[in-house]
């Protein structure tokens, strides 16, 4: 009855909801499935089924389990197998894909509005009728292995152990104990493990279904009749995220490739906790450092064409990084220049006019960055934690709430740390190769001359 009431409310509010993208009709079915329905552009629907299971839920050894299951779920729902399943989706004019991330596994579907219920039927069938058997698991293993860059060779494992196979930020995360040092493997994972996670995590009360676009008038009733029948389980606790538990070198040079004259600079800082306004504060500090880096390395000194600042999280720790593509010969000068720029910022703080301009640009961008059903559905997927009482929080409001004083405090705390410097460069530069070549030629000439002398002296 309660749900019927909701259906009526939902239908009467269709037109008014379309005006405000942060207002989204959301409710929970009796089996715990969270629904978010947003009427938007006509003719099409974007569907996201977010399952609360990701890489973070597994130990280093078993990390690929959720990813394997994700692939397995495309193996087929009847004797026509994988191809038959794909044909059914094609016949409905839709497209689908799935992604496993650290925190969730998400099925992403774009489809014509008139087929939305048939497409949802197919998705439900995938969840409940996929043939989880050894043959399909073996196929999924091969695909996952291929996606991870082919068979994990002894050489690759050795390189990973020596930190040569990771990007600079990943390498630092491994050093600090925030990330697994080796690539996870799939060979040892069993059908039983896959079945267990399918039973324990692919449950209605661990899922959110987001649908954006021209919504079928009967959608709420349909969803209750179909997805409302999925089983709920006692939720499994997510394990705690890894924290920094080891020391890392303050400065390192990482070898990337054999030969070249390029280099990359990365200066990484863990982000101190800024409480309630943590994310929006660091986004603005990042924007400020991005601009400062561009002014310094590109406009003033010309060391780098496109330096950039970035934010990335590993385990429970966020990092803000300054990065630049450089010529190998400029590395020392560029590092000195970045260090003195940061020292200046720490002493003098941000320029108020520049901060105001970047804050305004960030707010303006939020108004136009999310366009169309698909982008809107992705936005809701990424912002699920900010949904409450029928509304997503407006990020512009939060951005506007960051004062210059707060941003300065955050930046000064960040820069009070020495940070971690990582330089990526090839083993040998072209100049060095030329010198090595000259040395080899000289050595060869000496050997030939010596042989010739010895030969000449030998009595006939
Ligand atoms: Zn994959």
Q: What do you see in this structure?
A:
- It is a single chain.
- This protein is an alpha+beta fold.
- The protein has three domains: 2-148 and 184-229, Cytochrome Bc1 Complex, Chain A, domain 1, CATH 3.30.830.10; 251-425, Cytochrome Bc1 Complex, Chain A, domain 1; 429-460.
- It is 46% helix and 18% strand.
- It has helices at 2-12, 14-17, 65-72, 81-91, 116-129, 134-147, 154-161, 168-175, 191-201, 219-225, 278-300, 331-348, 352-368, 372-382, 395-400, 404-415, 430-457, and strands at 25-28, 34-39, 44-51, 95-100, 105-112, 207-213, 251-255, 262-270, 308-314, 317-327, 387-388, 391-392, 420-425.
- A six-stranded mixed β-sheet has the order 1-2-6-3-5-4, sandwiched between helices.
- Strand 9 (308-314) and strand 10 (317-327) form a beta hairpin.
- GO terms for molecular function: metal ion binding; metallopeptidase activity.
- The chain crosses the membrane at residues 433-452.
- CATH class descriptor of the largest domain: Alpha Beta
Overall mean pLDDT = 91
Strand order in the sheet with the most strands: 1-2-6-3-5-4
The CATH topology of the largest domain is what? Answer: Cytochrome Bc1 Complex, Chain A, domain 1
- Please write the string of helix (H) and strand (E) elements: HHEEEHHEEHHHHHEHEEHEEHHHEEHHEH
Portion in strands: 15-25%
| Distance between the first and last residues' Cα | 115 Å
Total number of beta strands: 13
Q: What is the overall shape?
A: globular
User: What would you give as the CATH superfamily of the largest domain?
Assistant: Metalloenzyme, LuxS/M16 peptidase-like
CATH architecture classification of the largest domain: 2-Layer Sandwich
Q: Into how many domains do the coordinates divide? A: 3
User: What structural category characterises the helix and strand content?
Assistant: alpha+beta
Taking Cα atoms only, what radius of gyration do you get, to the nearest Å? 28 Å
> What's the tally of helices?
17
Largest sheet: 6 strands, mixed
Question: Which residues sit in consecutive blocks of at least 5 with pLDDT less than 50?
Answer: 11-18
The hetero compounds bound to this protein are: zinc ion
> Percentage of helical residues?
40-55%
InterPro entries: Metalloenz_LuxS/M16, Pept_M16_N, Peptidase_M16, Peptidase_M16_C
Domain Peptidase M16 C-terminal: 189-361
Family: Belongs to the peptidase M16 family.
Domain Peptidase M16 N-terminal: 44-147
